[in-house]
Amino acid sequence: MTEKENRYEKILFKYHSPVLDELTVETMWAEIIDKENGIYKLDNIPFYGPLIATNDQFYAKFDELEQMPTYRKTINHSGNSIVLVSIVQEGYDKEIIRDRFKELDCTSEGLNDSYFAMEILKDVDYSEIQKILVEYENNGVLEYAEPCLSQKHRKDLKND
C-alpha cells in the first residue's frame, strides 16, 4: 500500500446535480480523519455540484451494494466554496481563465476542453472573483454556477 492509500480513501458521492439536472455519481479522494467512525475530509474538487467543498469534513458509511464508503452528510464546513465554469465561446482556451484565477489563489480541475471546477478558499474575497466571472460571462466567454457557496463567501457578496 502506498502512503496515499494509507491516509486517503476513495469515497462515493451520489446526489442530484444542479448542473446536469440528474442523479449523479462521483468518486473523490478524502483524507481519513477517523475511519472507525466514518469521518473524512474532502481532498478533491467536485465536478458536478454536490453541497460539499474541499476540506469539508463529512460522514461516510460503507455501502454493501456499492462495495465502498459512501457519503452521508457534511459535518464541518471549511468555509471553502466550489464554482463550476463552462466555456461557451467556441475556440476559447480555458487555460487562460484557469491561470488568471490561479494567480488569485483559486485552484481548479479541468474535466475537458470547456469545463472546470474551481476551489475558492475561505480567505479569498469572493466578490473579486465573482466580478471577473461576470465580466467573462457578459462577454459571452463562459457561464458559471455556484453550487456550494460558503457562508463567508455569501457575506463577501453582501459587503461589496
Concise synopsis of the structure shown:
With 160 residues, the chain is of the alpha+beta class.
What features would you highlight for this structure?
160 residues; alpha+beta; Alpha-Beta Plaits; 2 domains; five-stranded antiparallel β-sheet; four-stranded antiparallel β-sheet; 4 helices
CATH class category of the largest domain: Alpha Beta
Radius of gyration: 16 Å
Please tell me what the overall shape is.
globular
Instruction: Give the biggest sheet.
Output: 5 strands, antiparallel
Helix percentage range: 10-25%
The neighbouring-strand order within the major sheet is: 1-2-3-4-5
Task: Describe the secondary-structure layout.
Blueprint lengths: L2 H5 E10 L4 E13 L4 E4 L14 E7 L4 E9 L4 E7 L6 H9 L5 E5 L2 E6 L5 H13 L3 E7 L2 H9 L1
Antiparallel strand pairs: 1-2, 2-3, 3-4, 4-5, 6-8, 6-9, 7-8
